[in-house]
Amino acid sequence: MKKIWIWSVVTLAVLLTACGDESDQSQTSEETTSGDKWAEIEESGEIVAGTSGTLVAASYYEGEEENPDQLTGYDVEVMREIADRLGLDVSFEIMGIDSMLPAVNSGRIDVAVNDIEATDKRKEKFNFSEPYKYSYSTMVVRKGDNSGIETLEDLEGKIAGGGATTIYSQIAEHYGAEIKTYGNAPNEAYLRDVDNGRTDVIVNDYFLSKFGVAAFPDFDIHLHPDLKFHPTEQAVVLPKGADVLTEKVNATLAEMREDGTLTELAEKFYKEDASQKPEDEIQEIEGLDL
Questions:
Q1: One-letter-per-residue 3-state SS of 46-63
Q2: What is the DSSP letter of 33?
Q3: N or C: which end of the chain has fewer CB within 10 A?
């Protein structure tokens, strides 16, 4: 039976990783004091984590296509290990990326783990853990002609599939692309549209793009062979002011990095050690307000 390979934007970070609705994130429902969030979680014995379940290699359901049953992925297993080492149970609430950060603000969930990029603007509104994944951005394009894109400037006038509020859509728009938006859709929808010409390109995380393309070998698409840009750091999102919880998570991640657990999990899901900074030369993009 064929395995399910579902890929969201950032998600894009659906596809497109590293995303979220910025419009609802400027106000928190109430200020979280340094110790209150940790005390609340410690007393309940459970931490609630938001994730999409549609982001292959990061957060997805594993099982037969007709009966997927097991939520897994790098982000999911990192969070499970953090909770276990803190003596907590963990439950995952499945939601779209645009709902995740507002849900952290409102207290509906305690943390978010979904390949979310720790940007300067987001750090003004949320606490972030130390990074557990390092990556960069690339493009999915048609094989024959790279969709007419050889430089970032060639995005002008192209149609890019993505989420309305993702970092990756912001990058595409920065260079003049038109964004065709999707919901918390499976990656097949995004990739098929590039294949059939409804869109030209998907700007997204390297690791997520790699697995998305590999899942659909019949599509006339590939990763752009030359373009590597916008280095990224992915981390656990926590409520602003939840400093004790942040310290606990950071201490646990440090242990996991030291004893090789992060490397082991990254290589299991990504076939590369995404817990370490890439050695490639990655182009920085100027003028983005992220």
A1: EEEEEECCEECCCEEEEE
A2: P
A3: N
- Tell which phi-psi region holds residue 258, choosing left (phi > 0), alpha (psi between -120 and 50) or beta: alpha
Confidence of residue 64 (pLDDT cuts 50, 70, 90): low
pLDDT confidence bin for 287, thresholds 50/70/90: confident
10-134+235-270 and 135-230 have identical folds: yes
Domains of the chain: which residue ranges?
A: 10-134+235-270, 135-230
Q: How far apart are CA 125 and CA 46, in angstroms?
A: 24
Which segments within the chain are labelled E, that is strand? Answer: 10-12, 46-51, 54-55, 59-64, 67-72, 89-94, 111-112, 126-128, 133-142, 159-162, 178-181, 202-205, 221-223, 229-234, 237-239
Tell me the CATH class for 135-230.
alpha beta
For residue 77, the SS3 value is helix
Q: Checking DSSP bridges between strand 133-142 and strand 221-223, what pairing results, if any?
A: antiparallel
Q: Mean pLDDT, to the nearest integer, of 222-232?
A: 96
Higher pLDDT, 257 or 184: 257
> Is 225 in a helix, a strand, or coil?
coil
CA–CA separation, 99 vs 83, rounded Å?
22
> 19-28, 93-102, 236-245, 272-281 — which is least confidently predicted?
19-28
Dihedral over alpha carbons 40, 46, 52, 54 (to 10 degrees): 170
